[in-house]
TrEMBL record:
The chain crosses the membrane at residues 6-30, 37-53, 65-84, 91-116, 122-145, 192-214, 274-294, 314-340, 386-409. PANTHER family: SODIUM/HYDROGEN EXCHANGER, SODIUM_HYDROGEN EXCHANGER 7. It is a multi-pass membrane protein. It comes from Bradyrhizobium symbiodeficiens. GO terms for molecular function: potassium:proton antiporter activity; sodium:proton antiporter activity. Pfam families: Na_H_Exchanger. GO terms for cellular component: plasma membrane. Gene3D superfamilies: 6.10.140.1330. Residues 26-413 form the Cation/H+ exchanger transmembrane domain. It is found in: Cell membrane. Keywords: Cell membrane, Ion transport, Membrane, Sodium, Sodium transport, Transmembrane, Transmembrane helix, Transport. This is Sodium:proton antiporter.
């Protein structure tokens, strides 16, 4: 029988490019971790290079699909891990960044863009401002995970990145609608905004309570993960069809669902689910940067030398505007807050509520743009006025912010010497002591030999807890964990030897391997 041949060389080429891009992204990510810079920085550089690679593919994606495909799962992944308590405790700085910083950035960029391109409609200029206004947390978190920044500052940045997309996209939708209708009054906009805000919160709460009832009926890991993704897109699509904010609905849905996920989802589903979601977020970042890079090539080739220079100058001015507006707002907010505290008008519970000058500069410098900016630029209708200019500027702002701020953020943090008192570590230690005391009480009356072994281990943990002034376990692992890992490593080596010498087959090997994997995970491996 003759070997099967592809129906089209294009299919093979596309498949080969996808493999090459994914492997290249993995290599860039590894390099980024090695030199301790955010991996989106290298993805942005790679996307820019794609535009100039000869014979590189030119893939098309429906603009209406861009937001749902790229933003919905990424946003749910971030919102699922968000602490509602920390968000509530930091609502003042978060809300000012979400509302004031985004609004001022949108207005500033719109003003600069209109001055640079006088014939550009104001609605299109506002749409550009809304596209580049929201910072993306992916790059900042990649840096913040490498250094010990004060916990409260990290929570403010995470909360901002979670909600600023909703405010920016609301302005974006109104601006795009204004271009379509040409005449849009405040009386038409206000009800839309109220419906989007209130309706999105209600829809997210309902989905967060109802959909988990469906998810807990799915017991197989592959099926459960597929249903998780499907329901995420369903919530987004339903919100968009109802005229609500898909972003705000997804955020509320994820945070509501996360409250009960610990009880509803067993560990055998949770571990693979988290791994798949993390991989998916990485792949979506790769595809977004690559697709926008492919969009840049036809835009660049259509421009003559003079217009290219004009676009580059405009991109530099708008990038400068984006950086300066955020810096000025954070400085102004700090000054006002200090005045309110000095006059006794505002009494913060946390003395760190007013950021230091160094902390304010770090928050300002964490305004890197990323996936959401790319997705919203890509989602513009094909006939949108100045679409090429807006897409070019959006990619240039993302690239510039990731390269300039992304490469300098970590050295800046280290130079300032900001420290973290690790409140999360203290809470983990206390919770671990309480949990193992409860576990010890639960098996105290069991006379079996297995129960006695567990009792010995739990008592050792509680002895450590009693010696800790905070009532927690001193180190980050249980007393027997190093011994367990050493024993598991020896067991794994012996089983591999049995498989290599064909004493056991692969089926038996994989079954034992799965048992050892579970044991290693439980031992902190």
């Amino acid at each position: 029988m003759a070997p099967l041949k592809p129906a089209s060389g294009i299919v093979v080429s596309t498949f080969e490019w996808i493999i090459a891009l994914l492997l290249g992204a993995v290599a860039l990510s590894a390099l980024a971790r090695r030199i301790k810079v955010p991996y989106p920085t290298f993805l942005a550089i790679g996307g820019a290079l794609i535009a100039f690679v000869p014979n590189s593919p030119s893939w098309a994606l429906e603009p209406d699909l861009a937001l749902a495909l790229f933003v919905a799962p990424v946003l749910l992944d971030a919102a699922f891990d968000t602490s509602l308590r920390d968000l509530r405790n930091n609502w003042v700085p978060v809300s000012t960044l979400v509302v004031a910083a985004v609004g001022l950035t949108t207005a500033g960029v719109a003003f600069v863009a209109h001055r640079l391109m006088p014939e550009m409609p104001w609605a299109a200029a506002v749409a550009l401002g809304a596209i580049v206004a929201p910072p993306d947390a992916a790059a900042a978190v990649a840096i913040l995970s490498q250094v010990k920044l004060p916990h409260r500052m990290v929570k403010v940045l995470e909360g901002e990145s979670l909600l600023n997309d909703a405010s920016a996209l609301l302005i974006y939708r109104i601006a795009v609608g204004a271009v379509a209708t040409e005449h849009l009054t405040w009386s038409q906009v206000a009800p839309t905004m109220a419906l989007a805000l209130v309706g999105s919160v209600i829809a997210g709460l309902l989905a967060g309570y109802i959909i988990p009832l469906l998810l807990e009926r799915v017991k197989e890991a592959p099926s459960a993960i597929i249903v998780q993704f499907a329901t995420t897109f369903m919530v987004w699509i339903a919100a968009e069809h109802l005229g609500l904010s898909g972003i705000l609905t997804i955020v509320v849905y994820a945070m509501t669902m996360a409250r009960s996920a610990g009880q509803r989802m067993p560990a055998r589903l949770r571990v693979p689910s988290y791994a798949v979601w993390e991989t998916t977020v990485f792949v979506l970042n790769v595809l977004a940067f690559m697709l926008i890079g492919m969009q840049m090539r036809p835009i660049w080739t259509r421009l003559n030398a003079d217009v290219r220079w004009e676009y580059c100058v405009a991109a530099a001015w708008i990038l400068l505007t984006v950086v300066l507006v955020r810096l000025l707002w954070v400085t102004f907010y700090r000054a006002i807050l200090r005045v309110l505290v000095a006059r006794g008008i505002f009494h913060p519970k946390d003395p760190q509520a007013v950021a230091s000058p160094k902390g304010g500069l770090i928050i300002s410098w964490c305004g890197m743009r990323g996936l959401v900016t790319l997705a919203t630029a890509f989602a513009l209708p094909e006939n949108f006025p100045y679409r090429d200019f807006i897409v070019f500027i959006a990619f240039a702002v993302v690239l510039g912010s990731l390269v300039i701020q992304g490469l300098t953020l970590r050295p800046l943090i280290l130079a300032f010497g900001l420290k973290d008192d690790d409140p999360v570590g203290t809470e983990v230690a206390r919770a671990r002591a309480v949990a193992y005391r409860a576990a010890l009480d639960a098996i105290e009356s069991d006379p079996s030999e297995e129960a006695e072994v567990l009792r010995l281990e739990y008592r050792a943990i509680l002895m450590q807890a009693e010696g800790d002034p905070n009532g927690g376990v001193a180190n980050g692992e249980l007393p027997a964990d190093p011994l367990r890992r050493r024993a598991i490593a020896a067991a794994r080596k012996s089983v591999i030897a049995l498989r290599d010498t064909e004493v056991i087959g692969d089926d038996a090997f994989h079954r034992i391997e799965e048992e050892l994997d579970r044991a290693e995970l439980s031992a902190g491996g």
